[in-house]
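Quick one from the shared queue. A colleague (R.T.) flagged Flavodoxin/nitric oxide synthase domain protein as missing a structural entry in our internal table.

Convert sequence to structure tokens.
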Amino acid sequence: MTEILVLYYSRSGHTADLARRVARGVEEVAGCSARLRQVPPVAPITAVAATTGARGWRALRHAG
């Protein structure tokens, strides 16, 4: 069986509704199942630090 991961983040619930509909559509395909998972929120500064490394983190900290 093919398993499809439907990964989403939703603040207001609209994206969660869409993700549930996508998962239902996956379940309608023979031989497929869906795993619905919500990712936790990430603060913008955390996301930038993760992608720019320590140097970018220091620059942002001083800019604020």
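Residues 2-63 form one domain.
The chain is about 55% helix and 20% strand.
Added to the table.
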